[in-house]
Amino acid sequence: MALKHTLMIGLTVISVASCRREAAPTPPTAKGPDPLSITHWTDRTELFAEYPSLVVGQTSRFAIHLTTLDPFKAVTEGAVDVQLNDGTGQVQSFSANAPSRPGIFGVDVKPARAGKFDLSITLRGKSMTDMHNVGAVDVYNDAAAAATAAAAMPASQIETLSFLKEQQWALDFGTAVVQQQPLRATIRIPGELVPAPGGEADVSAPFDGRLASVVSHPPGTTVTAGQELARIQPPPGAPADLPQLERGRTQTASALEAATRDRERSERLVAAGAAPQRRLDEARAAEAQAAAAVTAAEAQLGQFNASRSADAGGTSGLFVIRAPISGVIVARSAATGINVSAGTALFHLVDPTSIQVVGHIPEGQVARAKSVSGAQIEVPGAESMRPAGKLLSLGRVLDPRSRTLPISFATGNGTLGVPVGQSVFLHLLLDQTAPAPVVPSSAIVDDAGRPIVFVQVEGEAFERRPVTLGTREGELVQVISGVKPGEHIVTKGAYLVRLASLSASVPAHGHVH
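User: That's the sequence. What structure does it adopt?
Assistant: Structure tokens below.
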């Protein structure tokens, strides 16, 4: 409420101060007819001019307000030409070489002939030249004829509110033209960003052992595939195992010697014809098995000795654990010196650049969702929505608890730049609607629960217009009723216009230039 009052007071101060600056001390005169006004747009500028009726031989002061549309700011340099063209090649020109104040040019127009003329107002500046062909205006023979014509003009039946150019220029303000185009119907559903398949991995202990060393990276650190994360030492054999290992090696060595002697004897017997060839083949097979047993026994004894040397500070017998994927360390339980069991999760890695967005379609919208052709991601707090990417899958089995159907899209996180696990909204794009007026969502203001927009009737006059909304696609909203294509609406600062409309102290009308 404090912010609302502050804004309203600020708007009032701008308006009152502006009018005081423009007002010149003049003797009181009888009130004449209201000045005429012009509002005209090109692709680059907006023209708003106020002037008294044009009378032959009399000077009419044009108060010309010029605004650049992108950004919506006052024109601060250049000259302005006002021309009256009678269509026969005779042109009356009047000009001002610079603005009297930012955005406002004062031009004295003194017509030499009566009749109907085409009025044009041209801005000539260093960075821009822009012409406004306003249309036909009347020049009267005398003041009485001008007053009669002014009295005959019908009064506007539209109730408007005033929001002066000085207010518009000082605030974050902007307007746009209502366009007519088709939109695609959408379904807004909750969703979340999850790692893509292969973009998430647990790094576990391959066997029971002790972590001899672990990298000091905390959660949130980025690692690359193949980077060393830890070294694990297998459990050392018990001291009582050494005699058994040595005895086993001696027994296998003795068995190998016996098998070798038997193979040599079999060779001699076969050579003498005293034994069949099969006897020699069996002896050779027995010798090979004995040799393999010796190799295994020596390996067991070597592993035991290696583990004992690792306990003494060496690196023999240590196994290196490496990152299987590139990504970010999400969680870690590994610490140097602790004993772990096989399968214990030491690190959890996630690749934040490879993600999917998974949405949950309510049961009542499942039938409509069959025609989904794409989606947009709405990130809470972000100003605009992002494309969701390629449709990956649409589920066929409802979740029995939430009564929703999953749908997933592939997306890259390079431009999205949000954390994995972020809750978002998905706008599922369906079939196109028929062409209709559309406005940016920023133009819509909630007024006591009813959506309204502010239509710019003139440069400083706005109409509060209730609207009925339809399909929404991205930042555009379809308006079923309330506005027409070609009308100008406030797209930036609409809420400030509403605050100004609630303040009785804001002037109802304008300027003395």
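The chain has five domains: 1-31+161-183+433-513, 35-155, 186-197+352-432, 200-234+317-350, 241-311.
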